[in-house]
Amino acid sequence: MTMATATRKKAPSKAKTAKKTTATAKVPAKKKKKEAMKDLSLTYNQFKEFEGQRYTGMKIGKSHKWYYDKGEWHETKITPDLWELSYAVTKRRAGKAPKGSGVTVGTAYHWYILAHQNVRKLNEDDYTTSMTGLKLKLAHKRADTDKWSVSAKTQRKHLVAFLQELIAQLEKEPIPIDFEYNGKQYKGEAIPITQTCLDGVCTKLDVILNDEQVGIIRYLKSGWKIDTHPDKKFVKAVGQEILHWYNK
Questions:
Q1: Which residues does 86 contact at the CB level (< 8 Å), separation at least 6?
Q2: Domain locations in the chain?
Q3: pLDDT number for residue 62
Q4: Element (H, E) at 186
C-alpha cells in the first residue's frame, strides 16, 4: 500500500473514536504506572544474551551518570613510574532510579578498573584530573548471601584472560589519524576496543592525539561522541578519520 492509498482510507466514525477514547480512559493512571514499573523490573531482571553470554541487569549500550562526593585518594610511590593507590567515596546517581529497575540494597560488586588519568597542575596545591578507561566486573554478591558469585581463583582467571586480550589489542596496528582542525595539526592513533568489534568494524576506540590521550570515542546513531570532549565538531573530525580508514 502506498502512502497516498493509506491517506485515502476511510476515517473511523466519531462514535467509534469516542468509544475507543472512553475505553482507554477507564484504565486509572495509577494502575498504568504500576504496570509500567512492573514491566521495567521484569525487563531489568530477565535473562538477556550478548555474543552467546547470558546476563541480567542493564541492557548492553545503556549508560549511567553518577556524581561523586568528596573522596579520599591515597597513593604511595613504589618505583620511579609505579604507584599504589586507594580511593574511597560515595557516588550518587544523577537523577532517580525507576523503582524496581536496580539490584537489592546491600548487593556488592568487585570491579577491576583500567584507566588513563590525565592531570594538569593549576597551582601549588590543586590539579585538574580526569579519567577514561574500562572497568570489568569480576564478581558480585547478592544482598541475601555472604557468598560471591565466583571464587577468587575464577576471578583471577577472568582477569588474566581480559588482560591478555588487552595486550593483544595493544600489540595490533592501530588506526592512524592525521587531520587539521582550527589551524592546528593533529596526528595520532585510535586503538579499537575489541569487545565492540563486529566483522572487523569497532564502535569504540581509545584515541591518542599529539601523544596525549583524548578519550574513548564511540559511535552512536546520532554520530560520534567522546564524553570528556565538549567540542562536537572536533569529535566528528576524529570520527571521520576512523570511518575513512574503515572504508578503504
A1: 73, 74, 75
A2: 54-171, 175-246
A3: 78
A4: strand 184-192
